[in-house]
Every structure is written in C-alpha cells, then in structure tokens.
Amino acid sequence: MNLPHQIVVKKNERESSFAYRLLKTWAEIDLPALRHNIALLQNRIGEKTGMMAVVKCNAYGHGAVEVAKEAVYLGVDALGVSSLFEGIELREVFSDIPIVVLSAGISGQAQEFIRYNLSPVVCSWETVNPLAEAAAGKGVKAKIHIKIDTGMGRIGVWHERADEFIRSVHRMPDIRIEGICSHFATADEADLSFSNKQLEWFNALLEKVKDLSIPYKHISNTGGIFNLPNSHLNMVRPGLSLYGVSPSEHIQNSDEIIPVLSLKTKIAFIKKIPPGRTLSYGRTFRTKKEKIVATLPVGYGDGYPRYLSNKGHVLIHGRRAGILGTVTMDHIMVDITDIPDVHTEDVAVLIGRQGKEEITAREIAEIGGTIPYEIFTSINKRVQRVYIGT
Ligand SMILES: *Cc1c(COP(=O)(O)O)cnc(C)c1O
C-alpha cells in the first residue's frame, strides 16, 4: 500500500487525496516553504560561502530524505547528520554529496564511515587512529572534520592547543581533513559577547593553521548565521532556520523564513458535558457550566507534550480551543463551546496556521519551558508525514 508518509500531494488537491481520507493525525511538510527558506539562507550567506544543511534527527522531524532531496536540488554543499546510521540512510539515496556526521563517532564505526563515504567529526586519537587503519590500503582516505572547542564544552579539542593536533593529523597519509569546525553556545541570545569571543578564538586558531589549506571552516548554526554575519567563514550549518523557525526571539532579520511543518488532526468525537463533571486522568478539570467538548486523537504518544494539559490550545475553524484536563497518550479534549458548527472529522490544527490564527512551535515550547527543537524532534513515527508540493 502506498502509505501516506510516502506521497507528495498538491496543495489544492490535499483534501481530495487518497492520503487525506486515511489520515487521523499527521504532519504536513510544506515543500515550497522549505525551498523558500533554503534559497533565503543561500542568498543571505552569498555565493562564496558553502552550506551544510543540517538534517539530523530525521530533519528535526520533517523527514531526512525528503528534506535532503530539496536541499541537494537547490545546490547545498553538504548534509549534516548526528549518527552513522542517519548517514547511511542518506548515503543510500545520495551517492555523491558530502555527508558530515556531526556527533563524535566511536572507534568501532571506523570501517563503516569509510565504506559509506561519510565524514565524521573527530576530536581525539581514539577515533582518528581507527579511521586511518580502516582506510589504509583501500586506495581511499578517511575524510574528517576536526572539531574545536571554543567554549561549548561538549566535543572538540580545546582551541588553545588544537594546532598541534591538527598538524599531527594532517601528516597522516590515510586521513584527509575536509574541514575544521566549532560550535556556538549562545548565538541565539541577546548578548552576543561570548559568541564574539568564540569566533575570535576560532579565527586565531585558523590563522595558525592557514598554511595547511584545509577546505572548509565552519562555526555558524542558525543563531550565528543571522546574528553574527562575520561568522559565516566559508561554510554555515543551518538547522532550525531551514524549517522556517527561529530558535529564540533574539534572532535578527529572520522574519522572512516560513514555518514548514503543520501538525493536524481530525475531531474524533463531540459531546455535551453537564456542569459538575470532570475530564481525563487525575480529574484536573471540572465543568462549572455546560460545555461542548471535542476529543482529538492525538496525545503524548505522538510527541504532543503532556505539559499542555489545561494550558495549550488548538485551532478549529480558525479559532482557539483550549485543552481541558490532562493530555493522555492517545487523546486530548478541547473546549468548542463557543465555536459554532463543529463536526466530527473537522480538522484541528495543533501547530500551524488556520484562518487568521497561528500556533507556533515556539508558543508550545514556551509553555513547557523548552525550545522549538524539542517540539519538532518529539513528533514521532506514529504521525504520518505528508509532503505538500506546489
Ligand atoms: C544541530 C547542529 C547545528 C544546527 O543548529 P541550528 O540551531 O538548528 O541551526 C549546527 N551545528 C551542529 C554541530 C549541530 O549539532
């Protein structure tokens, strides 16, 4: 069967499509919006700067292969993923494009990095040596990007002493250093002083190893791309902005990016609730007067956050309906008392736009004290992805 998550439907045929009839809770991925964002970023960084499209974690829940297809079509220079297995998934579709595995690899994966032509980020001899051994005698070099720690404190060689490490690795005959990279800790905040320090330290290191002519130098995530234009160097690594979302309110000139993902569901059941009854687990909501309540087939089992219990909203007929009671694994209840003419199977929007109203991933994240990244990466496999073309 042609499963809904494998098909692309045209925007104006979405509701008459085969997929639509089957769908209960789904994510619509707006491909023209994705293309718009990629083109906007390309325009922002200019022709001399390369782009690694970060499609880790299933492209932040948007579908790694589908997103990568658009990115490759629009001419990005590399794809960024988090793990060997994410890299293999993409390599099986894209035979040539450089694929960088951004999390530090482990020694046991060295042979697979070579076999699938993936470029891991490395920062220690424990991973460089097995890569060199795996490449030796095969007529290929192990391609790597060396990670420099300029203050993120996660992975990387400390910047002060990294030149010795880079030089030693550079002398190894079976290793090819494709890039040197670092990562910002606070590029999406109002105060950019620490980011500027990180950039200064990274630039100082790059100056020390200039003679090695390493092809790519990169440090900018979405925050860096928008807030620190002098940090673009010759490659940038956008993630969240590809998907049309700003990581925080402190991202400069990011108004033109368009959200790519909408999360939708269809009303399963509608009922009148007399005064004095309670709803859902723990009985945290009690009706004071009669209410009309719609039950929606979505819950924390789909990655819809449980902290939205009694706090979140959904859109029905372009109006906000508040969540009543606790979010359960498979269902939520919402208040439609003041929204006329609502029927079962009407569409409710959990993330996205309907009429003049919009619920953003940022709004949902802020209720739970988290970030939009976590909202997107939580939307799991049970939610069908439907790709909307032009
Ligand atoms: C996830 C990630 C990015 C992308 O970050 P965004 O804030 O989503 O743009 C860039 N670089 C590295 C190393 C990452 O892990």
In words, what does this structure look like?
This protein has 390 residues and is α/β, with parallel strands linked by helices. The chain folds into two domains: 198 residues, TIM Barrel (Alpha-Beta Barrel); 129 residues, Lyase, Ornithine Decarboxylase, Chain A, domain 1. It has twelve helices and 22 strands. Strands 1, 2, 12, 13, 16, 17, 18, 19, 20, 21 and 22 form an eleven-stranded mixed beta sheet that branches. Helix 11 packs across helix 12. The longest helix is centred in the middle third of the chain and has 16 residues. The radius of gyration is 24 Å and the shape is elongated.
User: Helical region count?
Assistant: 12
CATH top level class name of the largest domain: Alpha Beta
CA gyration radius, whole angstroms: 24 Å
Q: How many structural domains can be distinguished in the coordinates? A: 2
Determine the structural class based on helices, strands and strand pairing.
Answer: alpha/beta
How much of the sequence is in beta strands? Answer: 25-35%
Please count the beta strands (DSSP E, at least 2 residues each).
Answer: 22
What's the architecture of the largest domain, going by CATH?
Alpha-Beta Barrel
**CATH fold annotation of the largest domain:** TIM Barrel
Brief synopsis:
This protein has helices at 18-22, 31-45, 56-60, 64-73, 84-91, 110-115, 125-135, 162-170, 193-208, 222-227, 361-367, 372-378, and strands at residues 8-10, 25-30, 50-54, 78-81, 99-101, 119-122, 142-149, 157-158, 175-181, 216-220, 235-236, 261-266, 269-273, 278-279, 285-286, 291-296, 313-316, 319-324, 332-335, 347-354, 357-359, 384-389.
